[in-house]
Amino acid sequence: MTGTAPAPFNADDYRARMARAAQAAAEAGLAGLLVAPGPDMVWLTGYAPTAVTERLTLLVLAPGGDPVLVVPALEAPDAAKAAGASALTLRDWTDGKDPYAVTAALLDTGGRFGISDNAWAMHLLGMQQTLPGTSYASLTEALPMLRAVKDTAELELLAAAGAAADAAFEEIRKVPFAGRRESEVGADLADLLRRFGHSQVDFTIVGSGPNGANPHHEMGDRVIERGDMVVLDFGGLKDGYGSDTTRTVHVGEPTDEERRVHDIVREAQEAGFRAVRPGAACQEVDRAARAVIDEAGYGEYFIHRTGHGIGVTTHEPPYMIEGEEQPLVPGMCFSVEPGIYLPGRFGVRIEDIVTVTGDGGRRLNDTTREMVLVD
Ligand code: ZN
Ligand code: ZN
Ligand code: ZN
């Protein structure tokens, strides 16, 4: 991720997000948050350093205090151009100075702080050495729902990213599959995502035939044949917000069994979607999808959780998984993506991004969920 996020947010939006984050930190018993460059920093400030280096860049949020961005002096001019820059104070430090001392001066000694999961270990160690009485918690573990509820502008961006991914699917279904390598179809998919406005392609999974039975298979040299099921799972970032959708197509006429398995996954995906409503626990979405596959006798072949959140990244909390009791809240966005994976044979997965509305769910992907036959 490079450059500042092009999302249409202004300093007031970022000020409100930082205030909300500081409030959430206080409610979680934290003395503050230390945010490293990455998704949280982009979401809180609009700032994404062009290069993340060993020089410390850290946003310090403390309840009751003004946000401060500790930044290397040579990066300060770029940081000052970030959309949220006027909502925070820049505290630059020059080479030769101790950036941990600069940061420590902003913190309550002895406090417990949430720190970005992706902060470099050397920076956390630097802070621990400078403030030995201070302790740290994973920001994602301490505040898993910080970015989970999207506002109207964020929902529009996620919907636009979903529509772009759908447009890519409508084109990819027209290309030849039989006789081409998975990697060639994957390259087509990446081109299409960019053509429809994605600035970043995170994954283009093309799992043909037996490769489709491995949900982690990305794509390879296998030549796609007539008769193959092909799992297509693709997404990335458009205008700073994510897309992620899966459709499973078939090359030529499918067998009765392939149709049946695809129907079961489609019904499971529909059941998961129907379970989305405010107040329902995340695990209810997983249970609803899984029940359909269990009842059809394929339960042991549905080998992953039903979904994950999406926003400024393509994988984030909340997770639709057994044991996750977090209630759904209007504005949350996540995938519903059940699958059946028959080892050595084929796999089927169908995935939409869904957002929670006032009384149910709304899909942000809307290409057909019937099996598409390709050439
Ligand atoms: Zn087949
Ligand atoms: Zn996906
Ligand atoms: Zn997904």
TrEMBL record:
Is Hydrolase one of the keywords UniProt gives this record? Answer: yes
Q: What is its EC number?
A: 3.4.-.-
Which part of the chain is the Peptidase M24 domain?
A: 157-357
Pfam families, per the entry: Creatinase_N, Peptidase_M24
Report which superkingdom the organism of origin falls in. Answer: Bacteria
The family database entries (InterPro entries) matched by this protein are listed as: Creatin/AminoP/Spt16_N (IPR029149), Creatinase/aminopeptidase-like (IPR036005), Creatinase_N (IPR000587), Pept_M24 (IPR000994), Peptidase_M24B (IPR050659)
Q: Listed GO molecular functions?
A: aminopeptidase activity
Q: Where is the Creatinase N-terminal domain?
A: 17-149
Q: What are the protein's UniProt keywords? A: Aminopeptidase, Hydrolase, Protease
The protein's name is Aminopeptidase P family protein
